[in-house]
Amino acid sequence: MTNLNKLSMDQVRNSLKKGEFSAVELAKSYIQAMEKNRDLNAFITETSEIALKQAEESDKRIKAGNAGLMEGMPIAIKDLFCTKGVRTTASSKILENFIPEYESTVTSNLFSQGAVMLGKVACDEFAMGSTTLTSFFGTVKSPWKDQKGEYTVPGGSSGGSSTAVSGFMAIGATGTDTGGSIRQPASFTGLVGAKPTYGRCSRWGTIAFASSLDQAGPMTRTVRDSAIMLEAMAGYDQKDSTSANRDVPCFENAIGKSVKGMRIGIPKEYRVDGLNEEISKEWDRIAQILKDAGAELVDISLATTKYAGPVYYIIAPAEASANLSRYDGVRFGFRADGPFDNLDDMYLKTRSQGFGDEVQRRILMGTYVLSSGFYDAYFTKAQKVRRLIAEDFKQAFEKVDAILTPSSPSSAYTIGKEPKDPLEMYLSDIFTIPASMAGLPAMNVPTNLDSNGLPLGMQLISKHFDENTMFSLASVIEEAVDFQLNPNGLKE
Amino acid sequence: MTKSTSSYIIKGEKHDWEVVCGLEVHCQIKSESKLFSNAPANFGSAPNSNVEFLDAGMPGMLPVINEECVRQAVRTALSLNAQVNNVSEFSRKNYFYADLSLGYQISQADKPIMGPGVVVLDMPDGTTRNIGLERMHMEIDAGKSMHDQHPDSSFIDFNRAGVGLMEIVSDPDIRTPEEAGAFLRKLRAIVRYVGSCDGNMDEGSMRCDANVSVRPVGSTELRTRCEIKNVNSVRYVMQAIEIEALRHVELYEAGRGDEIIQSSRLFDPNKGETRSMRSKENAHDYRYFPEPDLLPLVVSDELIAELKAKLPELPDAKKERFIQEFKLSPYDSAVLIDDRNTAEYYEIVAKIADPKLSANWITTNLFALLKEENKTIANSPISASNLGKLIKLITDDVISGKIAKQVFEIMATDDKDPEKIVEEKGLKQITDTSAIEKIIDELIESSPENVQAFKEGKTKVVGWFVGQVMKQTQGKANPGVVNKILKDKLS
Amino acid sequence: MGVDTKTLDRICELSRIEIKEENKQDVISKLDNVIHWMDSLNEVDTSKVEPLVNVSSLFGSAPWREDKATGGNKVEQVLKNAPSQMEEHFLVPKVVE
């Protein structure tokens, strides 16, 4: 690996400006890393030709003094964002050969700010999962091996993104987060992963999992990179009725700002029974760092926290069950081989062969909670408790400016040793889900390695549309912990 | 089994039965683009050319509400004497079908844009009857499946997918097929007045489902209803209700009432029967839930007031005004206001000529002419002002009604000033008494037998004299003058 | 409440998903586990709470767009990914109404 791939976005920005290397050279360097680490299986589709062409354009714009926020930055795109003319699969067989005729707003924003696309990276099928083991295109390995030298999972659902960035195959990657799919893989691989306020990034052109929760965000190696990339991705979009009609501030300005006097909430409900002691200690250590930086720690209560999981696993599958009805083999995507007895026979065969087990399970769960007789008891109930969760946070934010919690109850699982029961797997999202239910901005900051040599991360949650507070705190933590991203499973 | 003609009662062996019917009318919203996408909403384009990625259900596509569709729905609600809900909500109605691209229809469930309202029916005997409306909600239309193009495949065209619909649901207040017909005609008149829907049932811009059940007269129960889907003309709706009601009565009377199950049926006008729809046999569970891609639809009081202020005069108000202003019978007035263009045409005519006579001429002669030439009043071969002038020539005694019909026929091919036609063709009525007197004197002289008959009390012969005068004057003699002179001379 | 074979068959039919007979018990037990977990929501008093559908509704209502027919006319793009098409139509196994 060349040194170019170790540079942060702001370093690249300066170097490109000074002409120390070109965007094309940088792209080539990343393409090399991408090709060298194909065994990690992060990329479903490599787009080197597009990357080189885009890099050439970047070089021209840099020369002309028209550089955008992401000028020349080689990034990976989660295969949930539709890219015009480039296969977009959602890591599913059902979209194995789908080539969109349109560009998602988020990728379009990134490209108009000069970003360079290296390829499309894997995720859990339709973003449903926490390991990226459910991708139709095979297991994605994290560049982090455990102490026994076995590969771990990169987290999920944005596991191709986390592998690509932590493995220095991309300077950043887009992720999407429905219940933690940016923050958890970032935590597993030692990255910064930010989910902005719901509505910050347009959902137009992003394959939907759960509409009221899905939110795009950046996965990067530094907090500043996260701020730069989020600014490029975000913005009001008339094509998304749930998009926030608000100006996007300069997130980078928040980096390095003093956090003196800020009040940081420590919610007691996150100190769950049997919380891993290492993680518990790490939480205390990071809280102390913020205190040392002049912030005030406040014990708070978020009483509904324990219900966030059940609420999420009702609402997300319910929305998904409808969002995934369009995959029926009629207009695009996979259609099972005929002949068919009738239309329904085609639907049944196409969907049963086209969707993997976990996706089928979620569709069935969603159909169940919406079906007659169960709707009020589950779906409406969950939406009501969802409001209570949002109100809990609102009350907490009257007392504090941000909340600090661990991002995940564990570090990365060794491949093959992940929980096998769905419920057990679902319980691993409990720290990230509550902020999703309330639509709050939240991010993972890598802080340490555990005794198994695997990354640990802390989650910061701030008020709606106040990503800057989150970024300021994150940059303070980042500086203090001096986390070294040095995964042990990469080919040198 | 017989059917009473006065009120609609189906007489059975065991009971007298009455029909309980509610209608669900789908009106395509008149707008340039679709309800949630900016694809054109017009009818008759090349297959799949009015389709945006959203309408084809492509991944990641999102709905955005068309403001004109909201305005049209509000206008319609206001014209149906209904409550406009300030906050309404879209939901997803989930089912699989080849022409449903998203796998769900975006519709309104618990919180529709319009609450209860009322439609006033104008019955042929001049009376009115109120039919309650339960609600009106907005939703998207589905695409179209075609089954005859290919031996083992159906063709799907999504041009219609996503076009805005207003579904207007009546209470089960309808008791006769005639009321159902009157309801549809009135509703069509209203949406056309407001301009929110074309109301063309043959083109499918207005479609009707009829929920039909029967019950013994005097009972207030609601028995199992069957829904007859997608009937495409007013006449067929009336027929379908009649046939379905008879089917229910026959089954109940035969003690086979349990065979009536809540289900969707199709009306076959050729066979004169309804039959169960195979594709809808599986009991549905639509799993409605609030559409998470949209936020609540908020309509402000200001907007409602603004749209209300700009509403045109509506059919009921116009009918009342015609009765007051033109002294028309309620029935004539109802006929004239049925179509906004007819009403406008009538008003022009009635400002020139006698209003009642104008109404007669339009509803008989002009309507017959339009029917014959397969034209609408908007492109009538005779302009309203010329028809007005023609009718005025009658009341001014310039021509007789009979001559007027001749002139009318000339105007139908050559729409010019009737005075000129009368002038050119020399059709002016003879009111000169001396000229008429002369003819009558000659007649009395030449046919004493008829004079004798008259004197013997056979007054019918007057007709013979009038006929002769008309013959000799080519119909131009004023009939009033002829009668008066005859009376004087014969007695 | 729980999931039995009948319920599973019903939701499979509604969602057009086919579970092989030999896998049904496994799917049922996994769904049942999750649904029992969801039942914990019954502990929460929501009698005076309105459902929250989308957090963005806390900040505004649905935006409206102007009624301009600027879209459509992309038959080729719309049909490009179709598994089966003919004469500018999508093709599906024959539907009997």
List keywords for this structure.
heterotrimer; B: 491 residues; Arc Repressor Mutant, subunit A; 3 domains; 10-stranded mixed sheet; 3-stranded antiparallel sheet; 18 strands; disordered N terminus; C: 97 residues; alpha+beta; 3 helices; 9% strand
In short, what is this structure?
The complex is a heterotrimer of chains A (492), B (491) and C (97). Chain B has helices at residues 67-79, 177-194, 234-253, 301-309, 315-326, 330-337, 340-352, 355-373, 384-395, 401-413, 418-425, 433-446, 448-455, 461-472, 479-490; strands spanning 2-3, 9-11, 16-28, 65-66, 87-88, 91-94, 104-107, 117-122, 128-140, 144-146, 153-157, 164-170, 206-216, 226-231, 264-268, 273-276, 289-290, 297-298.
Description:
By secondary structure, chain A is an alpha/beta fold. Helix content of chain A is 38%, strand content 13%. Chain A has helices at 9-18, 23-36, 48-63, 105-112, 159-166, 183-189, 223-233, 277-292, 305-323, 343-354, 357-370, 375-399, 422-426, 433-438, 467-481, and strands at 43-46, 74-78, 116-121, 172-177, 192-195, 215-220, 263-267, 296-300, 402-406, 442-449, 455-462. Chain A starts with 8 loop residues before the first helix and ends in an 11-residue tail after the last helix. The longest helix of chain B has 20 residues, at 234-253. Residues 1-6 of chain B have low confidence and may be disordered. The mean pLDDT of chain C is 94. Chain C has a domain at 5-43. The longest helix of chain C has 15 residues, at 24-38. The interface between B and C is large, with 58 and 40 residues.
Helix content of chain B: 25-40%
User: Which structural class matches the secondary elements of chain C?
Assistant: alpha+beta
State the helix count of chain C: 3
Return the domain count of chain B. 3
Assembly form of the protein: heterotrimer
| Biggest sheet details of chain C | 2 strands, antiparallel
The backbone outline of chain C, from C-alpha atoms, is flat
Low-confidence stretches of chain B: 1-6
Strand-residue fraction of chain C? Answer: 5-15%
Distance between the termini of chain B: 60 Å
Taking all Cα atoms into account, the compactness measure Rg of chain C is 23 Å
Most extensive interface: A-C, 77 and 55 residues
- How many runs of DSSP E, i.e. beta strands of chain C? 3
Instruction: Work out the helicity level of chain C.
Output: 25-40%
The number of helical elements of chain B comes to 15
Q: What can be said about the biggest beta sheet of chain B?
A: 10 strands, mixed
What are the secondary-structure elements of chain C, in order, as H or E?
A: HHEHEE
Tell me the structural class of chain B: alpha+beta
Overall, the morphology of chain B is elongated
The mean pLDDT of chain B is 92
